[in-house]
Design a protein that fits this description.
By secondary structure, this protein is mainly α. The protein has two domains: about 180 residues, Up-down Bundle (Growth Hormone, Chain: A), CATH 1.20.1250; about 180 residues, MFS general substrate transporter like domains (Growth Hormone, Chain: A, Up-down Bundle), CATH 1.20.1250.20. Helix content is about 80%, strand content about 0%. It is globular, with a radius of gyration of 21 Å.
Amino acid sequence: MENSRNPSHLGSKGYVIVLVVGLITSLGFSMVYTIVSAYAVDIGSTLSTAGLVSGIFSISALVLRPFSGLLSDRYNKKKVFVLSTLAIAAAFLGYSVSSNIPLLVFFRMFHGAAFALNGTASIALISELVPKQRLAEGLGYFGVSQMISRIVGPSIGASIQAISSYNILFYIITLLHLIALAILLLLPYEKHSDLHSEKNQRAAFSDLVALEVLVYAAVGGVFSLGNGVVNSFLVLMGNERAIASISLYFVLNASTVAVARFFAGRQADQRSITLIVNAALFCSAAAMLLLGFAQSLLPVAVAAVFMGVGLAGGQVSLQAECIRTVDEKKSGVAASTFYIGADVGNGVGPILGGAISSAFSFGTMFLSISALLGVTFLVFNAYQRRGAKTGAGLSRVS
């Protein structure tokens, strides 16, 4: 077995396998994400119901997220990863036989739950398959693969559907996940019996949510909140202000995140969490300020780069710190707690942004999010100083 958090390099067989399987599951998600609403309409849904079909995935994922950490911690992580990957394949096969909306909703919910479990299990596995001192770097490279899949996935999915059919697309994605399963069976992993002796005990709240990393998860959620606001309202702001080609933001932002993650993980391993997160909060707040006052494409483009650097550095460093902070046997719940913060941020962002922009303006909305990032900076630093004084947490707070 690859010993816990102690292989000699990130190119270990187990890590590469998890990376490849994670890429495939993320690619499959991305290939249907932008067309599932159209598929719902194609089989008889109204536009409003099509929105429900699309959104129910995230709701299902959020509901299962705490339990995904519990399952990953108490049971063999490889088996959890295998079963969740198989469940995702079954969900895509289910899409192909969904001739009515209730059946499609069921498989969307099933997919969301399996995807949440799969994501948590993959991060928990990575936490065991890479050295602890290089955890952020390992997570950073994993994040790059996820970002690449989400950049190319929608266009690949739309292209396949356009030249064939929805069902052919679903069959192809199912086949990809079966290939991922075959690869995953090669993963050299044995469960740690000493880490799973509590699997028959009743679950406590601390087995579902890692209370000791809630602040880190909440800060990560603020990054996701800001990103959700931009994704939901930037195009509308561009139309209102007559900024041509504003979609360039998304290309620059995604490219920056992908590139920055290559370096952010290593920096997060070598430098203090406080320094990295402060820099990320500054970059994200600056991006929101630029968008709040932008009247042309140039500040929007600069904001895209700043936001990309902030997201890459902030999220990978916080995710790694969540796992480092807890005992090894709680790596799964630490990963799921971080994801809960991201899920809540992604959900609250558009709602909050919509309320502010409706009552005031898009400019006020972006400036408000910048202010929220400033408040987060103060809260995070107060928490870090408190941890340094009390001796709580890790020594990487200065």
